[in-house]
Design brief:
There is one protein chain. By secondary structure, the protein is of the alpha+beta class. It has one domain (4-115): Alpha-D-Glucose-1,6-Bisphosphate, Chain A, domain 4 (2-Layer Sandwich), CATH 3.30.530. It has three helices and five strands; from the N terminus they run E-H-E-E-E-E-H-H. It has a five-stranded antiparallel sheet with strand order 1-5-4-3-2. The chain is globular and about 35 Å long. Mean pLDDT is 83; it is low at 106-117.
């Protein structure tokens, strides 16, 4: 049973805009889950965020790498949480897609606007 998860999400935002959205979402999640986790921290080094979360005596870490057209999330789970890695991967994938979703909508809207006479 693997205790590593990797999620990649393509986007068309560029590094700065994608990084701003990721930072905003991480802050929101820290607020929303403050009563469910013992400790959480986010540290940025350039375009890479290191996230540490502790809950119920377990600690998970993630590295979020923001590239110009891709978001890569590498999560390391403790062995106890590896049993539910599928659900955690779904949660991470959903949140990443929602965070970057507007970029795809904007692209679709501008394409539709160009086609309209």
């Amino acid at each position: 049973m693997s205790n590593a998860i990797t999620v990649t999400v393509p986007h068309n935002l560029g590094v700065d805009a994608a990084k701003a959205r990721v930072a905003e979402q991480l802050t929101k999640m820290q607020r929303d889950y403050v009563d469910k986790v013992a400790h959480s921290e986010v540290a940025w080094d350039g375009d890479v965020a290191t996230v540490r979360v502790s809950a119920v005596g377990q600690a998970a870490t993630a590295q979020i790498t923001v590239l110009k057209d891709l978001l890569r999330i590498d999560v390391q789970l403790p062995w106890l949480l590896a049993a539910i890695s599928g659900k955690i991967q779904q949660f991470v994938t959903h949140n990443a897609n929602e965070t970057l979703r507007l970029s795809q909508e904007a692209k679709n809207d501008s394409s539709a606007a160009r086609k309209t006479p």
